[in-house]
Write a structure and sequence with these properties.
The chain has helices at residues 7-11, 18-51, 57-87, 91-120, 131-145, 149-161, 176-184, 191-222. By secondary structure, it is mostly helical. The relative contact order is 0.12.
């Protein structure tokens, strides 16, 4: 709107100013939802045709929750794109800033997590490191990686889709009795328990999305449109 010079005309209409940014965000979320729903339905149709196995009620609920998680994840990037488009007047600058932050959060966070974990808790060689040291190293790496929305989304979606995944952690310390119980009980995780496992990731994704949109909302409401 700013690049085309229509933003001034838009806000001069007899509408509330916040209706502009609210409409932009809601319209984007609705478009994303329709696109993802169409993709999921098409892929599900191909899967039913090729495999011939009708999913049960729990599988349908898992697919629906996966769709909701995907919508929240892409809505975060939509809110971030709106934030950069409000912060920068140039379209190219806002686009490059969005792509740069996406590359950083998606790829360089994992590399930085490895470097930070090895610096704080060095493990050395695999034979010399103790189990507790390896677990602490993995825990620090996981905590740093969770600052990336891509990691949150991948862990949450994979746990929801695969009922055999009982945790999102990479390394878990278990005693002899716990290992015995884990080896004896290999049943799929119920949907309710899967939701409990991924609920922190979902809350973090929703919080990131709301924070991005809230900052965009405040900046837009305080911004001088005529300049």
């Amino acid at each position: 709107e700013r690049g085309n010079g229509t933003l001034i005309k838009l806000v001069s209409q007899p509408i509330y100013r916040d209706a502009v940014i609210n409409g932009k965000f809601i319209a984007g979320v609705v478009t994303i939802s329709l696109m993802l729903l169409s993709i999921v339905l098409v892929i599900s149709g191909f899967g039913l045709t090729l495999i011939g196995v009708v999913p049960g009620l729990e599988e349908l609920w898992r697919l629906f929750i996966y769709l909701i998680i995907s919508i929240i994840y892409i809505s975060f990037w939509l809110g971030l794109a709106i934030l950069f488009s409000i912060s920068f007047k140039s379209i190219a600058t806002s686009a490059l800033a969005s792509v740069a932050l996406w590359i950083f959060l998606s790829f360089f966070i994992s590399l930085g997590a490895d470097v930070l974990a090895n610096a704080v808790v060095p493990t050395g060689t695999q034979d010399q490191a103790k189990t507790e040291t390896i677990a602490r190293n993995a825990r620090i790496k996981e905590l740093v990686s969770l600052s990336s929305p891509m990691v949150l989304y991948s862990k949450a979606s994979s746990t929801i889709i695969d009922p055999m995944r009982k945790t999102t952690r990479a390394i878990i310390l278990m005693g002899p009795m716990e290992r015995l119980s884990a080896s004896r009980f290999q049943n799929p995780l119920p949907l309710g328990q899967s939701l409990v496992v991924v609920s922190p990731h979902l809350i973090a994704l929703v919080a990131m999305t709301l924070i991005c949109f809230a900052i965009s909302y405040i900046l837009f409401m305080l911004q001088e449109i005529r300049t």
